[in-house]
Amino acid sequence: MENIKEYKLRKKIDFLNLIDYGEFYDLMNCSNSSLTIKQMCNSFIHSFIFFPTFDEENGMEYTGVFINSDFDKDKHLYHIDYGIIVEMIDDIVKDDIITIQFDRTSGKVRRSKETIEGYIDEEKHGV
Q1: Which pTM does this prediction carry?
Q2: What is the pLDDT of residues 29-63, one digit of tens each?
Q3: How far is the C-alpha of 118 from the C-alpha of 40, rounded, in Å?
Q4: What is the greatest pairwise CA distance in the chain?
Q5: Structural contact between residues 47 and 66, judged by C-beta atoms closer than 8 angstroms
Q6: Rounded to whole angstroms, what are the CA distances from 64 to 23, 38, 55, 79, 101?
Q7: How far apart are CA 42 and CA 104, in angstroms?
Q8: CB count, 10 Å around CB of 80?
Q9: Average pLDDT, whole number, for the chain?
Q10: Cα–Cα–Cα angle for 44, 91, 86, nearest 5°?
Q11: CA dist., res. 35 & res. 68, Å (int)
């Protein structure tokens, strides 16, 4: 998924001060980033910071979420727009694994998926 905003860490953050995450990440400067669906899911599952964002001028409309995981909290914070979250959930819901191959020598599992758009090879798409 593309068009995710990334904010760099300014100073070390821990469980005792994560409520003040704005002091620890440079929220005035962001760069565009991208995450695979797997990385996004890991961020939600292992979230260290998870704060929804709202547009006050638009009747407190939900706009997205600030999020990072235990694994990347010392590097950056992401802002994922609501539309990207909906797109990710939609991709997951429409996902259908149709074949699985297991190589006993290497221990690797290879899955092929079918979506509405057609077949997707997960290794090629980082899913």
Answers
A1: 0.71
A2: 999 999 888 888 889 999 999 999 999 888 889 99
A3: 23
A4: 58
A5: no
A6: 20, 18, 10, 7, 37
A7: 27
A8: 22
A9: 84
A10: 60
A11: 12
